Amino acid sequence: MHSFMADPNLPHGLLVALLQNHVWVPEQGLAYALQSSNPKTKASLLTEIIDYLPQNLKEEALQKALAAARAIKDEWLRADALSALAPKLPPELLPEALAAVRAIKNESLRADALSALAPKLPPELLPEALATARSLQGIARADALSALAPKLPPELLPEALAAARDLRYPNSEWARVHALSALADKLPEVLPEALAAARAMTNIEFEGEWYRADALRVLAFKLPELLPEALAAARAIEYHEWYRAIALWNLADKLPELLPEALAAARAIEDEWYLADALRFLASKLPPELLPEALAAARAIEDEGYRADALRALASKLPPELLPEALAAARAIEDERYRADALRALAPKLPPELLPEALAAARAIEDEWYRADALSALAFKLPELLPEALATARAIWMPKPT
After folding, report:
1. Which of 129, 258, 261, 366 sits between 20 and 30 A of 380, alpha carbons compared?
2. What is the model's pTM?
3. Phi, psi of 306 (to 5 degrees)
């Protein structure tokens, strides 16, 4: 049995691979995760290995993961850790998790964490969760109410409706439409009110065009006769191509024929951060015939970090015939961190004939941490790599960022 208690920072994917391939027993994986002195690292490691632990160890891991998440000082990181952990929590830990969410001061982060927790909440915690949502303002409140709406019993609906109607600036109309629309599945009589709020968004400019288009889009999913109006509003967005691309992407669930238009809008974006972000959104819905064009757009991004982000977003969608091109794009990234990121995303999709090339790209990474990260991703397809990944990780003396 290998001991890694002295190693400062094992790549998370490698720890999962060690457990999945039974190189480490569950007790050893749990011991490694628990020895971390960094609450963020501990919470993340424990969350990732939960599914590979037997029930008796799983209970301990979940308790320690929640405690570690609550100990994270940075609110953004704490909210992220709580959101990742939320789907795995058992009923007995939900009150503590909700208390941790309520303690987050930043409203947007509090809304995000509450939204992640909402599907798990039992009836007895819903009044407290709704009170948390009501403590928020604007878009944050709308997001929280939308997440809670499917769970709310009849006796809490009047309070939720009052919270939706009481939304104030900024972007109050858009937020109110979202909240009312979410409640409409249980209170269909609020739809006319939501539609009136959406159509009242007339004195708008800049990103306000997107808010109006999105408000109409949300309602069009409840009232299909609004689709032409929502489409016209999306196409009328002139402020920025990113907003137009995302507005069209949002409508593609009902109008898939809009996806070529959305991709064209994305490719017209000059700012590479916005281009990579638009490709990230579009990737989840693009049909096979548009993927070559999307991959070409990703490869044309000059900034290696943004290019890696775009490749990671597209990786899971790419058909076999595009994988050699995607792998070549990953290998061409000079920055070793971003090259490892791209290789890690592509690894699960690679067929046997491309694995040697990917392995060569991983072994060419000089930094031990990033090399171990890339090797651990490939080890899911090539378990014989685990000793090499372990040896590489053993050479790490200083922690590297995730």
Report:
1. 366
2. 0.86
3. -70, -35
